[in-house]
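Thought: the user asked what Flagellar motor protein MotA looks like in 3D. I have the sequence; next I should run the structure tool and report back without guessing.
Action: structure_tool
Action Input:
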Amino acid sequence: MRDRLIDLYYQMQDFMAAGGPVLWAILALTILLWSLICERYWYFFRRHPAEFKAALSAWHARADKQSWYAQSIREAWIADLDIGLRRFLPLLNAVIAILPMTGLLGTITGMIQVFDVLAVTGTGNPRAMASGVSAATVPTMAGMVAALSGLYFATRLNRLAKTEVRSITDRISRLED
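Observation:
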């Protein structure tokens, strides 16, 4: 088991070296992406139900539910819950949009390495150009894979937030009668 972990460590180190320095930025963005996704799921399934229950019980405890003032309080509570549900979703979408662009930055830096090798050694040494080609393709692939892996969850979280806000509005409105 220990040997497999050491092997995995060296393979990861080789992969990061092949992709160049931009791959470290992609790794950092990917960690941020998955941290945001995990935080949002934790909020949706752990923290939000308690907040909704508190708002619902506070609305149910009110004697006046028909006045303009009561309706304004209801709308404020719904807006607070909506803000909590949508928090960090724009940042999540921005990170997903930035990941492929960071991969393309890796392509540019890798091509610069290829051109440096061409300037120094000429066109006759393909082995010298291989590291630049690797540094050009690996970050692009890594950025695209990381963005695609988070895209499904970001779309699902956005849809979940919209559905939950509609449900909150309906459930609090039902008590107005």
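Thought: the tool returned a structure. Summarizing for the user.
Final Answer: Structure for Flagellar motor protein MotA predicted. Helices lie at 2-19, 22-61, 68-86, 89-121, 126-174. The chain is about 90% helix and 0% strand.
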